[in-house]
Known about the structure:
Elements: H1 14-17, E1 34-39, H2 46-57, E2 62-68, E3 73-78, H3 84-93, E4 99-101, H4 113-140, H5 145-166, H6 168-179, H7 186-205, H8 213-232, H9 240-246, E5 251-256, E6 259-264, E7 273-276, E8 285-290, E9 293-296, H10 298-301, E10 307-309, E11 314-315, E12 320-321, E13 326-332, H11 338-354, H12 359-385, H13 390-403, H14 406-426, E14 429-431, H15 436-441, E15 445-448, E16 455-461, H16 469-479, H17 485-494, E17 504-510, E18 514-519, E19 522-528, E20 539-543, E21 549-551, E22 553-557, H18 561-570, E23 575-578, H19 583-593, E24 598-599, H20 604-616, E25 621-624, H21 628-636, E26 639-643, H22 648-653, E27 656-658, H23 665-699, H24 705-724
Parallel strand pairs: 15-23, 15-25, 23-24, 25-26, 26-27
Antiparallel strand pairs: 1-3, 1-4, 2-3, 5-6, 5-7, 7-13, 8-11, 8-13, 9-10, 9-12, 14-27, 16-22, 17-18, 18-19, 19-20, 20-21
Helix pairs in contact: 4-5, 4-8, 5-7, 5-8, 6-7, 7-8, 7-13, 8-14, 8-24, 9-11, 11-21, 12-13, 12-14, 13-23, 14-23, 14-24, 16-17, 20-21, 23-24
Amino acid sequence: MSAVEHPGAAACPACLASPLAGQVAERQRSAEGEEVQLSLPTIHCAACISTIEQGLLGLPDVSDVRVNLTRKRASVRVRNGMDAEALVAAVSRLGYEAQPLDAATLSAGASDRAARDLTMRLGVAGFAMMNVMLLSVAVWAGAANATRDMFHWISAAIALPTIAFAAQPFFVSAWRQLRVARLNMDVPISLAILLASAMSVWETAHHGQHAYFDAALSLTFFLLAGRVLDQRMRTVARSAATELAALEAPTALKIGPDGPLTVRLEQVGAGDLLLVQPGARIPVDGVVAEGESEIDRAFLTGETDPVAVAPGLQVRAGEVNLTGALRITAQAVGADTLLHRLADLVSVAEEAKSRYNSLADRAARIYAPAVHLLALAAFIAWFWLTGGDLRVALNVAVAVLIITCPCALGLAVPAVSTVASGRLFKRGLLVKHATALERLAEVDAVVLDKTGTLTRGTPLLQDADALPPEALAVGAALAQASNHPRSRAVAAAAQGRTLPAVNVSDIREVPGHGVQGNWNGQLVRLGRADWAGAEGSATVLRLGDGAALPLQFTDALRPGAAALIAGLKARGLPVTLLSGDTPEAVGQLAGQLGLDDWRAGVHPDDKVAAIAAMKAAGRRVLMVGDGLNDTAAMALAHVAIAPASALEATRVAADLVLVAPQIDRIDDALRIAGAARRRILENFALAAIYNAIAVPIALMGLATPLGAAIAMSSSSIMVSLNALRTR
């Protein structure tokens, strides 16, 4: 899919100020060097693109940078062996988060060639149909004998090569089904087109009055229109399992006799000693052998705050080392890591979801054999009634095949889905999967993640106004030296305030504890209370020998969170909150939103088990999440939604992406999906009513070729107009 960013409130404020917003930077592109792929989950606008591109192009070994906003990814061409970690550090200095992606893993992405191919075939079929319709009108206006035959042969010259080219998608699909002794909607479609063309050539060669060239082309055109609409609903994103595998660090710093050496991950084995620098992603599952630091494992567990690690503690591939250098003894590498096992879970779940039987599939199972049997019955009956007249019997059978409205059935789902997804886009939701709306309308239970989903996922400093201005200024000066989320919150709270100038010197970060420096001859510290000489485990700011100032942080609710819970309860849907965060944080949020069913400390496999248990109980679950720890559960759920701020692998696993900041738009999605399902069923009913009227006419031999073409067009227009009611 092309995940277009939703305009408006979701854009960052820099969009409004940047003189480069909306402009394309013109620069010379260099083809030399190797390409490094970076994921940029926190970029929002054109100003973000400009900042990152200009910042990276300023590095001596970077020759080219292209940032893709919709995919939140950068392609960077580097020279002289510059590695991804150096680029990640440079992006971090620019104020953005980045993760290296394995370019080899991502090289096999899908393109929009299929959509272009279908659109081209549609255009050819439409042009040919209009010309043959004009020739048919001339025949029906009174052309006879040699003139009529000439018009028919001209129609054949236009129709036959057009059908051979434009109807290939139906022929190929029908042949694949027939090879395995199955029927789908493309089998009667292909049979109708081929028989109509063959009968038309036979009639023309024998100076017959009627030819079905116009009907065959109309059938091809309207069904291709349905395929084009359907293609617009399909994602061009790669598998979520592939994205998960790409999150693994492609290289590691292996400690040997001559010191750390950068090696490919394939060269690392269990028992090897690795060095992980601050800001780097941990490449393996292992145990800390030396060093203290704090680990950001929000992608894996959803925990709001970083976790302190020391010798003897476990770390996992994909986690980010924040503050201090660590030496890690590798225990599991490559396919044996938790990250890869999570990718395997996602892959299995995606395969199960791809076997979902849509309404169109179920209709085709009934429709295809019924049409074939009806046409066969018409052929046998007319062959017997006419005393063995093969020509008349085949004409009636072809008329039955053409007039039984595969056009209306073929348009019933994609027409509604396209209108509904356009409406959802205006509400800030992107529909990625072809059957997402149908599955969303069937939901009878909802599972929500906490951090980054119901909340913003970043800590905010509370009661900053209660701090003495001078103390806040000192705290902000210390915070500038750290990438810890709480340090960034302190620095953010100081921005835009009128604070006294302070001079803090000798600032250094103590891994796992906090930041300290000297101010007016005093030791000042920002960090853990026990380290700063205070009681408890909270974050404090201490100035010299003065009393420690406790700092309270909160994870703010995402806009519309309370309205979403209220809307889901009003629909009678049971809501479950599953989070990897602490019981205190999850319980506080659940109480604030009025949720009774919640669990804390939930690991990725626990979420998968919870969804599996609900599915086993007959529930059709909507899963909403944003982290790596949610990806496998989202792939397993009946339908999944991820916010645009989510990790890329999570957005890929989702069926819908929420690009608006208000999470209560999910309630709108449920309402619109319900309306879309009703319109689809109404379209099937309209097609059934049409067939109930048209089929007896065809069976009685009263359906002329032009009449069949007009009837098909009328039914298709009727279905399309009903689809517009979804607005």
